[in-house]
Amino acid sequence: MNQLLIVFLTLSLAGCYGESSNTDQATAEGGAESSENTDTSEEADTSDGSDISEETDASEETDPLEETDPSEEPDPAEETDVSEETDPAEETDPATDVIDDESKLLWPIDCIPGESCSIGHADIDSDGLAFNCESPGYTGHEGTDISLYSWDQMDAGVDVYAAQSGRVLWAFDHPGAYDRCDANSTEEDCLPPNSNYYPDLDDGYAICTDAGDYCPADSGGDSCFWCFVGKNVVVIEHYNGDVFATRYDHFKSGSILVAAGDYVQRGEKIGEVGSAGSSTGPHLHFEVWGDDYYSLAEPFVGECGPNRTESLWGISVEPWAR
Ligand SMILES: [Zn+2]
Q1: In the Cβ-directed half-sphere of 39, how many Cα atoms lie within 13 Å?
Q2: In the chain, at which end, N or C, are there fewer CB atoms within 10 A of the end residue's CB?
Q3: What is the distance in A from the centroid of ligand 1 to the CA of 57?
Q4: All residues with CB under 5 Å from ion ligand 1
Q5: Is there a domain that residue 10 lies in?
Q6: Which residues contact 189 (CB under 8 A, 6 or more apart)?
Q7: How large is the average pLDDT for residues 175-200?
Q8: 3-class state of residue 28 by DSSP
Q9: By percentage, how much of the chain surpasses pLDDT 90?
Q10: Is residue 286 part of a domain?
Q11: Other Cβ atoms closer than 10 A to 165
Q12: CA dist., res. 138 & res. 6, Å (int)
């Protein structure tokens, strides 16, 4: 029994109480490491950029025959038309100034907080405060819940995107599963399993992976497994950014477009928002694993932490801005 390492990956969502007891063990296992993000050695390599031997080849660049052809270049009608370029309304539009660092995370859902959805923030350090010192989705919340305002939105279809390119580690879709769970649901798919968690369990809202190379080295072999309570779940491992993996839960049943092993691009649609599993309404539970399996990370930067240094979002403050 000592060798049995059970790692429950549980998730809950805003307003979904009664799940937090399952998260204690997982939090302890996951640890709170936050030392990634500091390796900038690759970015500082400028040896390629300093090779200017090609650019100064004079024979190609200053061909006088082309440069003095008057018929093409100085069209006065176009050059003096300044009405478009100095449109003040466009120049001051902050949306045009948004810079998206593609090495970082993309907003993973087609909705804008305050307009078409709301956010229940994470509290992965369990101090009762979200990164911005406001109330989190609930104390100890392990991810960011992005909730739709209505079932109608879910029925119409709200896309979920890969926040970063990578390879799909797990994709669990239950096409027949009840995916309109709420706080009062009695459907089996919305409730805890009828038995204890074990590898390959697929019962109630829980699904558990079998053993694999994601087990810690000291786990005693194949007795390690992971469980998710989002029923319809995707986890993507990333290779080209600061983040090890991202997790997405509660998809609409039958909407998931990817399978384990698939490679996905940043911004690629992977499914649609639902309310499957342990869920009280249509929403996406978006969870960031910073540098290893289930090492939870807070993507937003703020003075109440735990991320006080650098946003993990490509658009740092309001990642949904475009
Ligand atoms: Zn959540």
Answers
A1: 9
A2: N
A3: 58
A4: 13, 143, 145, 285
A5: no
A6: 174, 177, 178, 179, 181, 204, 205, 231, 276, 277
A7: 94
A8: helix
A9: 57
A10: yes
A11: 19
A12: 24
In this structure, what token pair is assigned to residue 307?
């991320």
Q: What CATH number does residue 165 fall under?
A: 2.70.70.10
67 assigned to some structural domain: no
The answer, yes or no, to whether the previous bond of 88 is cis (omega within 30 of 0) is no
Q: What is the pLDDT of residues 64-81, one digit of tens each?
A: 444 444 444 444 444 444
**Cα–ligand 1 centroid distance for 51 (angstroms):** 49
- 271/49 Cα distance (integer angstroms): 40
CA of 184 to the centre of ligand 1 (A): 18
Whole-number Å distance, alpha carbon 91 to ligand 1 midpoint, is 38
Domain assignment present for 273:
yes
If one counts the domains in the chain, the total is 1
For residue 115, give its domain range: 101-185+230-322
Distance (angstroms) between ligand 1 centre and the Cα of 145 equals 5
Distance (Å, rounded) from C-alpha 198 to C-alpha 202? Answer: 9
List, for residues 110-165, the tens digit of each pLDDT value.
Answer: 999 999 999 999 999 889 999 999 999 989 999 999 999 999 999 999 999 999 99
Q: Is the dihedral angle over the CA atoms 306, 312, 316, 322 positive or is it negative?
A: negative
